[in-house]
Design goal:
By secondary structure, the protein is an alpha+beta fold. Helix content is about 25%, strand content about 15%. The chain has two helices and two strands, in the order αββα. The protein has a two-stranded antiparallel ribbon. β1 and β2 form a beta hairpin. The longest helix is centred in the middle third of the chain and has 15 residues. The protein starts with about 25 loop residues before the first helix and ends with a helix.
């Protein structure tokens, strides 16, 4: 019998400006609570925080991650939307 590969889900949210939030764990917990109420989640394996990357030409980027052609990334989408409304 073939082994089933575990299914993974990446959830992002609760964006905030660097240094604007004192309790980052509360944001993680809020996002986890929403995720568990929306999806059948067995475990949360990782948590991370990152800053929004802004390209030098200010144009949003969607494409492959350098060095990881199997991973697609997008940057600056929410930042651009705010600036160009």
């Amino acid at each position: 019998m073939a082994r089933r590969r575990p299914r993974r889900l990446i959830v992002v949210g609760n964006g905030h400006e660097t240094g604007a939030v004192e309790d980052t764990m509360a944001l993680y917990q809020d996002l986890e609570d929403w995720t568990r109420s929306t999806f059948d989640v067995e475990a949360v394996d990782y948590r991370c925080a990152a800053q929004d990357f802004v390209t030098t030409d200010k144009i949003p980027y969607v494409g492959t991650s350098p060095g990881h052609r199997g991973i697609l990334v997008s940057h600056q989408l929410s930042v651009s939307r705010r600036k160009h409304r």
